[in-house]
């Protein structure tokens, strides 16, 4: 699928080598060893989003997912109507995690880190906050979905102990009302991978 078919090409990811921001289609995967330096970065604060932060959060999701409605677990979820945790760095919203309760699980509907703050611990802190919230609410597990092309997302969740429990083939085709978006490295986003972490 050609990225030229899409009018907006927001930056989503930050290059681990040169630091440049890029969109999904432009991104490539590279395996590295443990040579990456650990950077001393400002602390990450996580908490519930305030009403005043609502727009910044939606802008972040819009930038990362190309829309504020997300197809996940058989539903199309409107990100304006779900609970959201934010990560704050240097006084600004650096990342956000939208969630809802689904039976005995906390369902992570969307998670995004501003490209400026990727690989600074923001995503990891947001996941930890969501896991603490699930425990406090007496839930048994967390669930999340990622499309087949989202290799950084699949890496990230598995690094944090999430297991793939189901693959829904051709899930994207079940939502023709959502405009198709370019995939990571131009891999077509077709299938939905469901992951879970038991608490
Ligand atoms: C996937 C995503 C949420 C990860 O967020 P993130 O904020 O970059 O995540 P973290 O910073 O916690 O961890 C990323 C890496 O940075 C490393 N890192 C964290 N702090 C660091 C520091 N101070 N110095 C060096 N490296 C650091 C982590 O160890 C991790 O690498 P590793 O797993 O290889 O060890 C982010 O890439 C993103 O927004 N992607 C686009 C949207 C998306 O795919 N969302 C998920 C599907 S819904």
Kindly report how far apart the N and C termini lie: 39 Å
What structural category arises from helix and sheet content?
alpha+beta
Strand content: 25-35%
Tell me the series of helices and strands, N- to C-terminal: EEEHEEEEEHEHEE
Give a quick rundown of the structure.
This protein is of the alpha+beta class and 199 residues long.
Name its key features:
single chain; 199 residues; 7-stranded mixed sheet; two-stranded antiparallel ribbon; disordered N terminus; binds coenzyme A
Topology of helices and strands:
Blueprint: E1 13-14, E2 21-22, E3 45-48, H1 54-65, E4 69-72, E5 75-78, E6 83-89, E7 92-102, E8 105-113, H2 122-136, E9 141-147, H3 151-159, E10 163-168, E11 192-198
Parallel strand pairs: 8-9
Antiparallel strand pairs: 1-2, 3-6, 4-5, 6-7, 7-8, 9-11, 10-11
This protein binds coenzyme A.
Structure description:
This protein has helices at 54-65, 122-136, 151-159, and strands at residues 13-14, 21-22, 45-48, 69-72, 75-78, 83-89, 92-102, 105-113, 141-147, 163-168, 192-198. By secondary structure, it is of the alpha+beta class. The strands form three sheets. The chain has a seven-stranded mixed sheet. A two-stranded antiparallel sheet has the order 1-2. Strands 4-5 form a two-stranded antiparallel ribbon. A hairpin with a 2-residue loop joins strand 6 (83-89) and strand 7. The longest helix has 15 residues, at 122-136. The termini are far apart. The relative contact order is 0.18. The model is unreliable at 1-8 (pLDDT under 50). The site of coenzyme A has 23 residues, from strand 8, helix 2 and helix 3.
